[in-house]
Amino acid sequence: MLIRYRGQEGMLAWAFHRISGVAIWVFVIFHIVDIFLSGANPSAYDTVLQIYASPIGRIGETLLGAALLYHALNGLRIIVMDFWPVFTRYHRQLWYLNWALFMIVGLPVAFVILKPIFAV
After folding, report:
1. Which among 8, 93, 95, 109 is most buried, taking Cβ atoms within 10 Å?
2. b/e string for 75-101 if b means 16 or more Cβ within 10 A?
3. Do the beta carbons of residue 65 and residue 109 sit within 8 Å?
């Protein structure tokens, strides 16, 4: 028998919300540590800023922005369903709306963040 995923949009929304939340938390911890470690040494701070401006740093910022945006939009979707239970009937449509807004807002922002990587 083949094992396959049987969850639908609700389960994916739950999983992505948890994953994005953990990713944000990990970034905040690393950011606090790097600021703390470089706070007493201006040259170390400049090195940290160079890392953030590097291609890998820009990709990381883009992923962080995507995690923040998805987590925020999905949180709003959850709030709507909590305060207006009638919308739970439309949780799939709200989830697809969430992704549409994510693409409409996220892609232009990702382009702006990643643009310096492709500049010659």
Report:
1. 95
2. eebbeebeeeeeeeeebeebbeebbeb
3. yes
Within-domain flag for 2? no
**Amino acid at site 75:** G
Tokens coding 63? 């992923």
Mean pLDDT of 106-120: 91
Q: The whole model's pTM is what?
A: 0.85
Q: How confident is the model at residue 26 (pLDDT cuts 50, 70, 90)?
A: very high
User: In the chain, count of helices (H) and strands (E)?
Assistant: 4, 0
Q: Which domain holds residue 38?
A: 9-118
Whichever domain contains 19, its CATH number is 1.20.1300.10
